[in-house]
Structure formats: C-alpha cells, structure tokens
Amino acid sequence: MKKHQITIFDIAKELNISKSTVSRALTGHPNVNEKTRKQILDLAEKWDYQKNMSAISLITNKSNIIGIMVPEFLSSYFPNIVIAAQKEAALAGYTMIISQSNESYETEVLNAKVMLSSQIDGLIVSITKETLNYDHLKVFQRKGIPIVFFNRVCEEMIVPKVIVDDYDGAYKAVQHLIQTGKKRIAHLAGPNSLSISKKRLNGYIDALKDNNIPIDEDLIISYDLSPNKVKIYVTHLLNLPNPPDAIFAINDPAAIEAIQIIKTHGLKIPEDIAIVGFSGDYASALIEPSLTTVAQPVSEIGKVAIKMLIEQINRNVEDWKAVTTMLKTNLIIRNST
C-alpha cells in the first residue's frame, strides 16, 4: 500500500470546508468558528496529521531546526552538552537533529551532508580528532547557515566559538600535583590536531617551569584518544627506569583507564602515583579511588552555544559576529591526589 501523508486538503475534503479554514485553525488563527476549530483539531489528531515542515520552510525561509554534531558519545561529556543544548533550543522554539561521528572524519562529512539536506537553520559542532580539512563545514557559511563551534574548534574559521580555559585548567591541575609533593609528573596528552591538546600541554609545561621542575620529554606522550592505547602508554611510563609519581591526563576517560592499569601493577594511588583528569565526567566520582578532575561547565557550554547560534540565525549574514566565549573550569580535588 502506498504511503500517504495526511494534508490540509484531506481534512478540508472530509469536513467539506475550505483548506484556508483548516490552515487557519491548525496555526491558531483567531478568525475561526470554535465549533469548526474543534472539528478540525479532533480530525487532525485522529488522522495523526503532521505539519509539512518543508512547505512551511519554503514560505518562511526557516525550518526551526538546529543541528548538533559531536565526535563521540563514549563519555558523559558530550551527551550532557547535547541535553543542555536541546533544552535551550526547545525553549526558543527549535527542534534539534543530533549526530555523532565516532571520531571519524568521513562520518563527520556524511553527517554534515545530512544536516544540509535537512535544511537546518544553524549548526553547533565539535570536530573529530581526525578533522584537518573543514570544507564540509565551510559550505554552511557559503549557504548562509550559521555555525558555532564548541570544545574542539576550527581555528581557521571566523565564527562564534564556546570554549573553556584549557590552559588555565591544565595549569591548575599540575600546580595542585606539585603542591602535594609530586615532581615527576607525566602528561598523557591528546592528538596534536586538536587545539585543546595544545593548550592543555602548554598549561602543563608552564606549571612545571614556574616551579623550576625540568621538562622531561620522556614523560610527555601524545595519543589518539583510543581507549586501548592508554594501557600501552601507562604501562610504558610505569616501566621507565625513573617512573613518574603523577599523571595528568588529557581527559577523564584516559585518567580512569590509567587508574585501573596502575592498580593492576600493585601501586597505591595517590601514595605511589597520583592521577588528575580533565572534563568532570560522571564516572570520575564513582571510580575507586575517586578521580581529581578539572571540571568543565558542560550545561553552560550547551546553553551558551545555542544562544549564540540563535543570535546568528536572527541576524543578517553581513551582521554575523565571530565572538569567542571562554568559560572557566573548576578543579575538583578527590582521592586520586
């Protein structure tokens, strides 16, 4: 049986009234008899009538749909941002299309094409660890569709961005480790392709320098954020002739995995080796020992990104403003240090 989408024509024909009357009733226009309005709304509900958003968008030049693209859903970080963003979008009358790229550039490109075909009014995005080419995102700008980056941003695109002070968060984390008496602090860093990796590495290095602790390149390991790689690198650090007495990890998932590995080596945390993560993942409070972490204001990130995007949507293209909003982090000290 051929699929048929119920239209205002079907409702008008069934009730023997004009389609303009049906349209006015469905859009809440006051100039409709109450009895007629009730008949229309009851039939629309019975037949599961859905507004034709494509047709509406052709008339209004707006779909009232916002897209969000994130690199992964493995930790609680991005899902919590999505939840906050979705709530903020709904308050402003927008629905949201959500996609995650599983840290794959190719998937991100495909997701971007889906967003374009869905006629979204705007896009907020955090790029994958593999993303080095941004042509699939620049096309949104060319088409007059605003973009706001958050967390993992594209530095070469002059658009609004929502970030946290990654440098300061890393500096505070390493400073805390030094204050607890640690001196051989390793850094499990992220890929060099991400600006957050560079900023957190710089914060780590400057904290050591400011405390007259020499930089040991053997204690700095960049990795591709794959969970299975953490075991390799942490084991390598523990097997060094002069192993570290602390690890500052690029994110909480890496720090949590490091805790599990260290425990299998019979070492005590934090006595033998202390651990600090970054992000404030939900699991950081549940792991044993609980993880000291640089917490990010995830809900605020989602809300601010949506507000900035809607501001762009409501402006003419020539009036777009490429504002960067930097939010503060919060060091949460727990048992791992």
From TrEMBL:
Alphabetized SMART domains for the sequence: HTH_LACI
Pfam families: LacI (PF00356), Peripla_BP_1 (PF00532)
Matching InterPro entries: HTH_LacI, Lambda_DNA-bd_dom_sf, Peripla_BP/Lac1_sug-bd_dom, Peripla_BP_I
Limits of the HTH lacI-type domain: 6-60
Gene3D superfamilies assigned: 3.40.50.2300, lambda repressor-like DNA-binding domains (1.10.260.40)
Keyword Transcription in annotation: yes
GO molecular function: DNA-binding transcription factor activity; transcription cis-regulatory region binding
PROSITE patterns in alphabetical order: HTH_LACI_2
Top-rank lineage group of the source organism: Bacteria
Keywords attached to this entry: DNA-binding, Transcription, Transcription regulation
Protein name (database record): Substrate-binding domain-containing protein
Taxonomic source organism: Pedobacter puniceum
Lineage: Bacteria, Pseudomonadati, Bacteroidota, Sphingobacteriia, Sphingobacteriales
